[in-house]
Amino acid sequence: MLREALPEIVTGTVPGPKAKALIERRAKAVLGAVQCGYPCVISRGEGAMFEDVDGNRFLDWIGGVGVLNVGYSQPEIVEAVREQAGKFFHGMQHIVTHEGYVSLAEKLDEIVPARGEKRKTMFANSGAEADENAVKIAKSATGRPNIIVFSGAFHGRTAMTMTMTSKKAYSYGLGPFPDGVYRAEFPYLYRKPGGMTDEEAVQYYIRRFESVFEEASPAEYVAAVVVEPIQGEGGFIPAPIEWVRAVRSICDRHGILLVADEVQTGFGRSGRMFVSDYWKEAGCAPDLVTFAKSVAAGVPLSGVTGDAKVMDRVRPGVVGGTFNGNALACAAALKVIEIMRRDRLPDRALAIGKKVVDTYTEWKSRYPVVGDVRGIGAMVGIEFVKDRKTKEPYPELVRKMIQYSVQHGLLIENAGTWGNVIRFLCPLVVTDAQLDAGMRIMEDALRNSLS
Asked: How far is CA 240 from the centre of its chain?
């Protein structure tokens, strides 16, 4: 049974002959800029495993870049989508109402830890759309033109969200860009200014944040601060809760909305349904939360949930879209939430994360190239450096590790400004045996790449 299987490369190397043929077809038919960095052609998937067209079996620690927290082909979700498909695929939200749309909005209003006695939700299709709509909502609610984002941020590839995104490889040559987007320094504690303790560094980053009001936009013109609770593309960097608490206080003082971009962090991965649950417990809940990726197990769906008083200040016509709240996606998402709560997948994320962090930390004691291990729950990053003192990034090593791992049946992916971080986004339904097998392959990859 594939769900319980271990990695196995039956063709000796990948791609095998059938996969190679399809990859060649792809090269001829698909825009080259839509790149694929792995020699894999999926045939079927179950749990944390997939099988390619040649019969090779891979353990997936990328999970569709955070989409597959409940795993591939969860039978109950397959059945929920099949049942909905037998009724209707689509009911355009501006034309008809369908119960799945309403039920899912009600469920998210209940579980998303945004501020407010009452919350409301809107749906979209991708994380970028969710983030862009959060900006629209914030500007509509405050009447202000500007937003603040952060170094290392990734928010998407639309015109607005690629402007919000820090790494300019995602927007090279595509200007002019929307105005009113200003950038503050994210608290990257591993790379804090020399000589500072973590506590001193947090205060430094708070001061750097406030300096934006002097150097870029006066506070009274800022509609929202948009922040990832754990930076994804930026290198799996958690925002320290003391810093979040301070940013929340500053936002309140100036009438600015705080937006948590939980596109990659949401739905069980952190040990809570949302990292913002930790924020709420610390008294600094966001006003708006964006979500996508794992909400519907791979069926495109995203959205924004927030304080009803904020959401209700948006004028009709400002938000919307043809496929938003698609019936198949809503059916999948309702079942995802049910399974996550029933099977306590956030608790499983904590157990997985502990094992991964313990293993990476043990590697750090033996391999000088391991600079930092960090994360929350089962969203873990391991950063590789050429020298621990200088912290010079080591992306060449990471590239070699990725190539070695895929040839041995494990998919891992890089992250970070310099591509020197390996991110852990394995489905939360991974078995202990699969987790152990993946750790062995990854350590072999590290040793082989260093030799």
From this structure: 17
Which residues 6+ apart lie within 8 Å of 252 measured at CB?
A: none
Q: What is the DSSP letter of 132?
A: H
* Residue 237 vs residues 22, 191, 358: alpha-carbon distances, Å: 37, 11, 18
Our measurement of the distance from residue 430's CA atom to the centroid of its chain's CA atoms, rounded to an integer in Å, reads 18
Evaluate whether 61 touches 308 at the Cβ level (below 8 Å).
no
Neighbouring CB atoms inside 10 A of 238's CB total: 22
Domain boundaries, the chain: 2-60+344-450, 79-342
The predicted-structure confidence for 237-271, as pLDDT tens digits, reads as follows 999 999 999 999 999 999 999 999 999 999 999 99
* CA neighbor of 324 nearest in space, from 134, 119, 91, 85: 91
Neighbours of 179 (CB within 10 A): 9
Give the integer Cα–Cα distance in Å for 320 and 318.
Answer: 7
Q: Is the dihedral of CA 213, 215, 221, 225 positive or negative?
A: negative
CA angle (429, 434, 439) in 5-degree steps:
120
> pTM for the complete prediction?
0.97
Architecture of domain 79-342: 3-Layer(aba) Sandwich (3.40)
